Amino acid sequence: MMRMGFLMLFNFVFCLNAHAQSIALENLDENDMRNLVRELSANFNHTSVSGASSLGTIFGFEVGLVGGMTKTPKIESLAHEADPGADAKQIPHGELIGMVTVPAGFTVEVGYIPKVGKDDFKFSSYSLGLKWTPTDILLDWPVSVAGKFHLTKSSLEFANTIGGIPTNFDYENTITAFTLLVSKNFVLVEPYFGLSFLNTKGELDVTGSTNVFASGGMSASASRSSTGWMLGAELKLLVFKMGLEYANLFDTSRYTAKLAFYF
């Protein structure tokens, strides 16, 4: 399982590197910037690919990796304007994930990717989540219900050539969200559904070409708010978990898988 996890992490870094290098951004206006922030936020938003139930009535622990792909039609359109040969139909996401359940139905989630890459590409991200499952202690319902607050901060640095000028891009993204979850634990399988309310802000700074933004400036930012939903399931085998999740966030589709240990 750990070998598969490291392969997932390696593939994530390699794929993100390749996609970042293929995205040439040029002549961005305010609407373009909003679309860029919207799809990157959908990609990097925190998920633990988990349902509403906690990891135990008193204590539980889980560690693993999540990763997948997000469809990015608007980013592909922007990239094609600068480079007709660019391939940006989808971009990858992934992180190391850790979860701890404590008494009273609270579960703390932490996601992390240290700064990885090389000189022309670097990426880092961390996320925090706090989930409360009142059905653990207050409500005797046939399903588990939970609410989760989560925060994600991501940083992406990459280089490209715009109008014949070497250009460096520095993107910073902050997402805050609240998610309502409902799931049914069938011992081995736990399907779940979630509804999210999200706010995000993205900032892009460039050095080099003055053709990246239509205004002629060297930086721009945009903020977006949206609702989203997700549908997924976890397979639980002794101390091993696998999970799959589909999410529709900021009007785009994201697919995520999970491999984890738990007890």
Which key phrases capture this entry?
alpha+beta, 263 residues, elongated, 3 helices, ten-stranded antiparallel β-barrel
How would you sum up this structure, described in words?
- This protein is of the alpha+beta class.
- The protein is 17% helix and 56% strand.
- It has 3 helices and 10 strands; from the N terminus they run H-H-E-H-E-E-E-E-E-E-E-E-E.
- It has a 10-stranded antiparallel beta barrel.
- Helix 2 packs across helix 3 (73-82).
- It starts with a helix and ends with a strand.
- The model has no long low-confidence stretch (mean pLDDT 88).
| General shape | elongated
What's the order of the H and E elements? HHEHEEEEEEEEE
Question: Beta-sheet strand percentage?
Answer: over 45%
Helix content: 10-25%
The assigned structural class equals alpha+beta
